[in-house]
Amino acid sequence: YIMNGTGNLMDFLDEPFPDVGTYEDFHTIDWLREKSRDTDRHRKITTKSKESYWELIKSLLDAWSGWVVMLLIGMLTGTLAGVIDLAVDWMTDLKEGVCLSAFYYSHEQCCWTSNETTFDDRDKCPQWQKWAELMTGHSEGAGAYVLNYFLYVLWALLFSFLAVSLVRVFAPYACGSGIPEIKTILSGFIIRGYLGKWTLLIKTVTLVLAVSSGLSLGKEGPLVHVACCCGNLFCSLFSKYSKNEGKRREVLSAAAAAGVSVAFGAPIGGVLFSLEEVSYYFPLKTLWRSFFAALVAAFTLRAINPFGNSRLVLFYVEYHTPWYMAELVPFILLGVFGGLWGTLFIRGNIAWCRRRKTTLLGKYPVLEVIVITGITAVLAFPNPYTRRSTSELISELFNDCGALESSQLCDYVNNPNMSRPVDDIPDRPAGPGVYTALWQLALALIFKIVITIFTFGMKIPSGLFIPSMAVGAIAGRIVGIAVEQMAYHHHDWIIFKNWCRPGADCVTPGLYAMVGAAACLGGVTRMTVSLVVIMFELTGGLEYIVPLMAAAVTSKWVADAFGKEGIYESHIQLNGYPYLDVRDEFTHRTLATDVMRPRRSEPPLAVLTQDSTTVEDVETLIKDTDYNGFPVVVSRESERLIGFVQRRELTVAIKTARQKQDGVVSSSVVYFTEDNPQVAEACDPQPLKLRRILNLSPFTVTDHTPMETVVDIFRKLGLRQCLVTRSG
């Protein structure tokens, strides 16, 4: 009678527990386990689909759900990116003036609709008024300048104060770039709420505010975070992804690709960026999915058309002049500059962030943001190159001087008796405007280098791509103009003789700016392949792949000579996230016995036995330790391994059993064996059979396995723990 009773009671545990298999916050997932769970699910669906048509349709829907998620991610990401672009344009111009015909037009849109503009003064139109003109009626003079200056700083302070307050009150996770955390999450770490709905909403809004406040930061990194939030949002609609952390990370990898795709209008670059920089586990299926997500995102952005020129690309260049072998020397020099800037930036920024963590500075995030914004705005306004938004600056630096350019950088001395086609303007001596511009650019370069170090890592969304590209583009343009003038004045030198005839257009300064931008971005992030692809997708300059590659490789070599970590890895280390980098070499010559816990001096290993532990013992063990799981052994004497049981599943199982199964008390024995335990007398408490939650194939290595092999196993299989055995 008792045997039957216990038999029936013990079988109830063969139904699945609620909640088993989810992870705690700030824990690492077990990739192997997630993978096998997904295979089981797949097998179930396949066997069921043969039973009826309805199940077959369900299995087809399940197979399609991956592509549906990608479609949704692409559409939402593209829409958000378009909205962000439009809002940033409008709010950046709001600092200088307002459009009278419709206040929601940016400067450019305002003057498009105007009939009074001439081509030379296309930036001046009666509908667009600067603040001083609007308030006092004077557009020139010292008073107007001071008033404009004051309002510029005031708007900047207002925007950044709003941004930091929103982040602080509603979503503390929305600050920073987000890429270091995304990398950590994709490597199998869990940060609850980092990709939540609030973070998505606040990050989108504060990103607009932060970029418009004129701080030295870009919107590219945060857009990856926003895209991953969208990915997480849509994962929760499908149980295939919401219940399996491993599958969810495949979707997030693809979402990251969509984020870069809309940030730069570079779909292929986005896929490569996800593959090279952020992803940890990237199967071929994810490659196709990210390709599709990036495509949909780019389509959606193109449909919104935020730049109004029916191009996706931020900095489209029109020139296609060839480059010459001798120019590789300045290109490689720019690469060296990029590597040095990358090293300087990483060292400086990490030192500053460490100070923020350890000193009083970290206690006043709002004050810090306001002070930095104040300094930035006050120093930026007098210089026309730092006053406008960074993307406009880069755009101007990349462009070549055509016949119609009204920019100061194009103030060359024209030869009056030259009649040539408009497109191919020969090299000319620099006029006074170019020299003024060079001075202002040199000051802007120093300003950008210093201020970016302090800006990145504050408590507002801040990307890194645009500021580092700006530093490189300024340096490159200066070098380009120098080379151009040298070629003009000394075209009989041996290096210029072969390719620079007098009256020909041989040096393109814009190309140098492009190469410099690539070099600096490469020095900071240590990307190579995806960087070059992003750069030529961004500018449309397909002829310049080789110079870009040369600069990217040089900058990586130079920066790697000073330190192997890029900025994202350095921030991961600074924040102490658990991240096993695939690229690190493991050099120590140790064995598994030297590294395993517990050490000789520590208390012995916490284990459960297969048939002699009571419920009370288990509960005490769980209360006294904070391990994530316990090995199950035959007995305390032999310690031969049977399996491994997760802490979380153990607590859930005991809790459930106490509620649902009669007769389970503190002195009940817990069994992990296959056959039913013998209950000797009726007065003994009910045993509790927990074979179901026992993992019978835990990953083990022997005690003489070299540590580099163990590290490799952890990296490649994504283990959560590994048991060290000696003869079982």
TrEMBL record:
One CC-aspect GO term: Golgi apparatus
InterPro entries: CBS_dom (IPR000644), CBS_dom_sf (IPR046342), Cl-channel_core (IPR014743), Cl_channel-4 (IPR002246), ClC (IPR001807)
Superkingdom of origin organism: Eukaryota
Compartments in which it is found: Endosome membrane; Membrane
Keyword Nucleotide-binding (UniProt): yes
Family named by the database record: Belongs to the chloride channel (TC 2.A.49) family.
Membrane-traversing stretches: 64-88, 149-171, 191-211, 251-275, 287-304, 324-346, 366-385, 437-457, 464-483, 511-536
Species name: Hucho hucho (huchen)
A molecular function GO annotation: ATP binding
UniProt domain CBS: residue ranges: 596-660
Protein topology in the membrane: Multi-pass membrane protein
Protein name: Chloride channel protein
The keyword Secreted is assigned to this record: no
Keywords: Antiport, ATP-binding, CBS domain, Chloride, Endosome, Ion transport, Membrane, Nucleotide-binding, Repeat, Transmembrane, Transmembrane helix, Transport
